[in-house]
Design a protein that fits this description.
The protein is mainly α. It has helices at 10-15, 21-28, 30-48, 56-69, 75-87, 99-135, 138-152. It is elongated and about 70 Å long.
């Protein structure tokens, strides 16, 4: 979290080199992965200064749920989610933080992440097609257009 100020966008969180939860789980075990998440959740509890913070059992259950459902997230993405939670981007907590709210934040982030990745893949595809067309000969361009027209028949 000490370097969370460097993360300013979903793109940075996704593209920075960092291990995923599944790779931490594979390399160090499930217990270590869940322990990392529990430390992260305890940190959130303390920083938010809530009147009704999560209990130890809730933290344990939430960590195992995140590990099971979101193991593809990178550690930088977890940091980015925490930064957003702390800055209030996900809304008010009303002095309470629970598993339901945290998993809702993860679902919101996951939706944003999916949209970002989909748009990025579309841009890459468009750029590839442009480069492909820029490098083709007139005969190849004619064949490509003919093949495309034939598909529509």
């Amino acid at each position: 979290m000490a370097y969370s100020y460097k993360l300013t966008s979903i793109a940075e969180a996704i593209e920075l080199p960092a291990p995923t939860l599944s790779s931490v789980k594979r390399d160090y075990g499930t217990k270590m992965c869940e322990s990392y998440l529990m430390i992260w959740l305890v940190y959130l509890n303390e920083m938010l200064n809530l009147s009704r913070p999560m209990t130890e059992q809730q933290i344990t259950l939430c960590a195992s749920q995140i590990t099971a459902d979101y193991s593809y997230l990178k550690l930088t993405e977890l940091t980015f989610i925490a930064k957003r939670i702390l800055s209030g981007e996900y809304g008010e907590f009303y002095e309470r933080l629970g598993i339901d709210k945290l998993l809702t934040f993860f679902r919101q982030y996951d939706q944003e992440r999916f949209t970002f990745i989909e748009e990025q893949r579309q841009r890459e595809h468009t750029e590839f097609r442009y480069q492909e067309q820029a490098n083709e000969t007139p005969m190849e361009a004619f064949k490509r257009r003919l093949k495309k027209a034939y598909k529509w028949l």
